[in-house]
């Protein structure tokens, strides 16, 4: 490990200049080890790039992407002319912000709690319990939520009735758009937190044990240990995960929204995101090109956001920036 | 230097993927069929002998044994049902092998998200399907033809490879299967069925409620619901799911105007003409706010009465039809063809066994204004995938299934003596020990793309007396579907149609289930403003222009 670090600094220093081939030869073993990753990204991220062109054509199955007629920006027209672009983008971004920020916050919190637990079997059991919802398909989650919340036969209302609630006291969330932002965030956190906390838990495990022991010797209590050692050590992980997540902030969680809210227009005002709108509107004419145009729009906005955030982080803490 | 290497790599990747795409698209057009074997093309249509239409097939080279995949919407049978299906297919394939050296396999598109999966499978263009069951009104036949998913069927090819079908379909009907001068579909044009929608209801209960002739209007239906709710409290009025709003709104329009919708333009059927003036485009759901306000008011009262579940908009798993069969639901909204099953004393319809008086009536949308449009002949049609590697053999197999009595009966009813029997009156019955869950071949092959009344054997279980009475009533008032040849070019207005459709669906769900807030007048006004903003009038104008080009020559 040490050797590599030294040689990296050699390359960076302006005194030693080598040709590309020499550099390559020097690090041939490392490069060789990278090949699977390079091939993977080349095949699945770079090779399909020219396909973006499909967003600018009237796609014909037989003529293929590059044989189809070029129609410029016509595929983008539909999204722009719907008059909903702004409210859809707003909903998508706000929901994702809530998911990303609350999700990571809660994940860090849970990871620290797990780390502090002394009873081994309780730790394992609670970790497994939190992890399980991640494996439940969104379709099933939608069914579960419907059976909990629906007005006539839902669990919540049945319980209320059992306690003697009158008809006007029953809860009808499927007619009330205001409750859904909270409900959706809660459902998301229930499903994802266990999984997300694993990453943080792993990086807490990776913190140098010497530091923690030294703090104990110095008489730091649990809270001080968390505040001054664990949280600062987690900072790079948090920043990188946030940056990655921000790249996809304009991409909505279709599975979650479509399965739980469904196609109930009463709730769209607070729950309609780009994905669900595009799905409903274009499902009928099965147009790849429109869908790709929307995807491209989302990627471009995501790209801009990542660049801006990365730029800001670079100004504040250069070490944590991605590039 | 590094950058140069990177640039070189990137450009190589681009070229590579370009080449890959180019290669793919070059492969496909070769399946033209006409240039591969031109042997049997000497004769004309008049040469086809009705008694032995396949006489000339001897000249066709069928030395290579091929598999023909038939793509159909429906859930794949499993377990015992699949075994029974395979037994039938084995027998059928024996005949097909002998006659055209081919065998048939069924490729199922499950009902969940069927339209997306159907279109996706066609878009793959990998030759995995040959024969495609399609429909111009509910399976995107024309968009797929335009997108290049279907093979153009030249008259020469049809004459050669599907002679029986070719000679049985009239020239006018072939014309209705053309887009841009090319035939893409083989229509199911010799099969009597009605798929106009309406409500199936309990005629005996309606009579008890004082509706002696049965339900004849939406107002009668309201009366019926009130009666059932009071007198049969255990019965669910209608366990509707959230998708029923479209048919209800279209039904209301049919019952209050002489509107004739254009198929396949938008799922809601917003645009069309009127029986008095077929070629002037109108949109009654938008043009006639008073009528829609009435609708909104009535539906609000239905909602308050509890006709459907409170959270109907989120209800996706409705079993209403099965509930109707056993007497747990009071109506079923679907088309006449479904009613012909529900009104018959079959094993699954236990209401008739449980109650001697039970009867099922049908209130069809448009009954008040006598507005019924006959089915378009491309409501069911067979197409050949443009990626099919054996289009000729696919046509031959189709020709046999559609016209050869032996193949037809096998494919539609199963093996005689196992899945069906013919009684003394020449009607079709089920043999002893028949289990409709595992032996109903008809419900597994889902052959809705070329049924043939010349070969059909009537089902003895069906309530023919009642059915034929309604069919006769329809025949008196029906008009033929007038827009069969109109395949709109929507490229310039697709975005607007999508937006209008989306807007309309959002409002209509609230209106048709009475879930709107505020007054009926307000919600209809709000919908009309949103529709206008979404461009409904521009679309109307464009369709009118295309109508004029086609019909005012």
Please tell me what the overall shape of chain B is: globular
Second-tier CATH architecture of the largest domain in chain A: Orthogonal Bundle
User: Approximately how much beta-strand content do the residues of chain A carry?
Assistant: under 5%
Strand content of chain B: 5-15%
Give the ordered list of helices and strands of chain A.
Answer: HHHEEHHHHHHHHHHHH
Tell me the name of the CATH class of the domain at 5-28 and 65-192 and 376-445 in chain B.
Alpha Beta
Number of helices of chain A: 15
Number of strands of chain A: 2
Rounded average pLDDT of chain A? 87
Note the total helix count of chain B. 23
Assign the structural class of chain B, choosing from mainly alpha, mainly beta, alpha/beta, alpha+beta, or little secondary structure.
alpha+beta
Overall radius of gyration of chain B: 26 Å
CATH superfamily of the largest domain in chain A: MetI-like
Could you give the distance between the termini of chain A?
22 Å
Structural class of chain A: mainly alpha
Mean pLDDT score of chain B: 88
What spatial order of strands do you see in the largest sheet of chain A?
1-2
Strand order, largest beta sheet of chain B: 2-1-3-13-6
Fold and architecture overview:
Chain A has 323 residues and is mainly alpha-helical. Chain A folds into 2 domains: 2-44, no CATH class; 84-320, MetI-like fold (Orthogonal Bundle), CATH 1.10.3720. Helix content of chain A is 68%, strand content 1%. In chain A, helix 4 (74-81) packs across helix 15, helix 6 crosses helix 9 and helix 11 packs across helix 15 (288-316). The two termini of chain A are 22 Å apart. In chain A, 25% of the residues are buried. By secondary structure, chain B is an alpha+beta fold. In chain B, the strands form 5 sheets. Chain B has a 5-stranded mixed β-sheet. In chain B, strands 11-7-12 form a 3-stranded antiparallel β-sheet, with helices on both faces. In chain B, a hairpin with a 2-residue loop joins strand 4 and strand 5. Residues 12-44 of chain B have low confidence and may be disordered. Classes of the chains: A mainly alpha (323), B alpha+beta (553). At the A-B interface, helix 4 and helix 14 of A face helix 1, helix 3 and helix 21 of B.
């Amino acid at each position: 490990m040490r050797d590599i670090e030294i040689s990296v600094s050699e390359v960076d220093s302006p005194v030693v200049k080598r040709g590309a081939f020499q550099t390559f030869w020097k690090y041939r073993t490392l490069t060789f080890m990278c090949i699977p990753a390079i091939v993977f990204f080349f095949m699945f991220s770079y090779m399909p790039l020219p396909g973006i062109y499909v967003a600018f054509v009237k796609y014909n199955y037989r003529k293929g992407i590059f044989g189809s007629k070029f129609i410029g920006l016509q595929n983008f027209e539909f999204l722009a002319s719907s008059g909903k672009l702004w409210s859809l983008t707003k909903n998508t971004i706000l929901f994702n912000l809530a998911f990303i920020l609350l999700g990571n916050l809660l994940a860090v919190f849970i990871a620290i709690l797990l780390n502090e637990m002394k009873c081994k079997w309780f730790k394992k059991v609670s970790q497994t319990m939190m992890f399980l919802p991640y494996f439940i398909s969104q379709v099933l989650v939608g069914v579960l939520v419907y059976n909990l919340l629906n007005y006539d036969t839902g669990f919540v209302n049945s319980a209320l009735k059992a306690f003697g609630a009158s008809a006007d006291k029953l809860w009808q969330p499927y007619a009330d758009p205001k409750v859904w932002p909270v409900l959706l965030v809660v459902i998301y956190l229930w499903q994802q937190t266990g999984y997300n906390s694993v990453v943080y838990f792993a990086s807490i495990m990776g913190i140098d044990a010497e530091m923690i022991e030294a703090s104990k010797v110095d008489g730091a209590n649990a809270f001080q240990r968390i505040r001054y050692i664990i949280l600062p050590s987690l900072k790079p992980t948090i920043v990188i995960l946030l940056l990655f997540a921000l790249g996809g902030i304009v991409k909505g969680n279709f599975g979650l929204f479509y399965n739980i809210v469904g196609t109930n227009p009463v709730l769209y005002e607070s729950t309609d995101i780009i994905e669900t709108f595009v799905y409903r509107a274009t499902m009928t004419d099965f147009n790849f090109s429109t869908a790709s145009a929307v995807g491209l729009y989302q990627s471009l906005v995501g790209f801009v956001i990542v660049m801006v955030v990365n730029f800001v982080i670079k100004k504040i803490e250069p070490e944590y920036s991605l590039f | 230097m590094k950058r140069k290497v990177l640039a070189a790599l990137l450009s190589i990747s681009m070229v590579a993927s370009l080449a890959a795409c180019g290669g793919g698209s070059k492969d496909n057009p070769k399946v033209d069929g006409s240039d591969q074997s031109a042997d049997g093309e000497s004769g004309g249509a008049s040469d086809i002998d009705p008694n032995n239409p396949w006489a000339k097939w001897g000249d066709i080279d069928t030395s290579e044994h091929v598999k023909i995949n038939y793509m159909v919407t429906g859930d794949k049978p499993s377990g015992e049902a699949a075994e029974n299906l395979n037994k039938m297919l084995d027998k059928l394939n024996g005949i097909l092998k002998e006659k055209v050296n081919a065998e048939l396999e069924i490729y199922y598109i499950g009902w969940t998200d069927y339209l997306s999966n159907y279109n996706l499978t066609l878009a793959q263009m990998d030759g995995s399907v040959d024969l495609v069951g399609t429909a111009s009104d509910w399976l995107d036949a024309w968009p797929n033809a335009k997108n290049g998913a279907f093979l153009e069927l030249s008259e020469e090819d049809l004459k050669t490879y599907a002679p029986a079908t070719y000679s049985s379909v009239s020239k006018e009907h072939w014309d209705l299967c053309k887009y841009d001068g090319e035939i893409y579909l083989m229509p199911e044009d010799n099969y009597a069925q009605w798929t106009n929608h309406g409500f199936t209801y309990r005629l005996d209960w309606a009579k008890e409620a004082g509706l002696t002739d049965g339900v004849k209007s939406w107002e009668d239906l309201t009366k019926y619901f009130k009666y059932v709710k009071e007198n049969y409290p255990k019965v669910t009025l209608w366990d509707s799911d959230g998708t029923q709003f479209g048919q209800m709104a279209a039904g209301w329009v049919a019952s209050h105007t002489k509107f004739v919708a254009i198929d396949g333009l938008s799922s809601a059927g917003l645009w069309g003409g009127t029986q008095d003036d077929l070629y002037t485009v109108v949109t009654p759901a938008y043009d006639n706010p008073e009528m829609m306000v009435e609708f909104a008011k009535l539906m609000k009262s239905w909602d308050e009465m509890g006709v459907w579940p409170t959270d109907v908009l989120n209800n996706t798993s409705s079993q209403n039809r099965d509930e109707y069969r056993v007497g747990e639901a009071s109506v079923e909204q679907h088309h006449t063809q479904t009613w012909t099953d529900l009104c018959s004393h079959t094993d699954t319809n236990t209401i008739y066994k449980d109650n001697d008086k039970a009867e099922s009536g049908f209130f069809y949308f448009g009954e008040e204004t006598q507005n019924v449009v006959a089915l378009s002949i491309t409501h069911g049609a067979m197409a050949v995938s443009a990626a099919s590697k054996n289009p000729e053999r696919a046509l031959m197999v189709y020709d046999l299934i559609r016209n050869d009595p032996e193949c037809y009966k096998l494919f539609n009813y199963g093996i005689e003596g196992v899945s069906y029997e013919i009684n003394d009156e020449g009607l079709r019955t089920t043999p002893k020990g028949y289990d409709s869950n595992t032996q109903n071949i008809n419900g597994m092959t889902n052959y809705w793309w070329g049924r043939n009344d010349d070969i059909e054997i009537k089902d003895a279980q069906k309530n023919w007396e009642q059915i034929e009475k309604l069919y006769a009533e329809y025949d008196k008032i029906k008009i033929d579907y007038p827009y069969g040849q109109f395949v709109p070019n929507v490229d310039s207005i697709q975005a607007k149609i999508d937006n209008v459709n989306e807007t309309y669906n959002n409002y209509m769900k609230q209106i048709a289930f009475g879930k709107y807030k505020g007054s009926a007048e307000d919600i209809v006004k709000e919908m009309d403003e949103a529709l206008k903003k979404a461009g409904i009038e521009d679309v109307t104008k464009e369709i009118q222009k295309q109508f004029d080009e086609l019909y005012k020559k």
